[in-house]
Amino acid sequence: MPKPMNLQGKKFGKLTAIEYIGGSKWRCVCDCGGECVRCTAHLIHGKTTSCGCAYKRRQYKDLTNKKFGKLTAKEYVGHSCWLCQCECGGTVIKARQDLESGKADNCGCLTFSKLSKSHTKHGMSRTRVYRRWQSMIRRCYSPASSGYADYGGRGIYVCEEWRNDFMAYYRWLIENGFDESIPAKLQSVDRIDNDGPYAPWNCRLANQVQQCQNQRPKKGRPDLKRKVVAYNESGDTVASFDSITDACKWIGEGKIKNVRAQISHLCATRDTVHRSHGYFWRYAEDA
Description:
Radius of gyration: 44 Å
Oligomer: single chain
Strand order of the largest sheet: 1-2-3-4
Order of helices and strands: EEEEHHEEEEHHHHHEEHEEHHE
Number of strands: 13
Structural class: alpha+beta
Strand content: 15-25%
């Protein structure tokens, strides 16, 4: 086996061979202070003259603080690439040629903004009024909704104009004085006819008290709005009233709540022979 060529102490460009490590390779030290391992043939024929520092430190076009669209070049990171600061606050690495040609002028924020606008119909999907519109649709059309039995199950529906176009519903609200800053209990959509649909001609803005006054009678509770008639033993009508509440006031009793219950029970029981406060009672349509 031939004896390896002795290169110890010899200089090759910026490299000085200091130790043979076998396999025709020498450990070298560079003028910059760095160390590297190089092949004997490459050293002799001049194919390698540094540890790589010459390549790393070669001159590049300085773009520091230059502006390209929304981007400002801040720091060179190698391989013709620059770390850039965007006006939106983001940072991104872009190639010099892309910056200078105008191909790169933002960090991607403009693309996101354009996509967002192209997919946005009204920009109100996170507002209270939009959630209430969705709730109105669900309870009228989705059997899985907890309120379906009291709405869609009873034939309550939403007019085509409101169901297919949220903005039509929202415009109606604004035209009728809706203000989203007002709490929901002071301003909400109420159907004038409880058996009618959600439609402009059957809705109004009402507070919680008005909503409660406009509810349909619940099971087991008297309908205080129905007209009632008081008659004597001969079957002659003594007086008629627009509601049970008016009848209670006519009687003049202090505990109106108990009187309401009694009259409501007698009106609902057609075959009763009992009387309340000297009179028999019937709903006007049953009299």
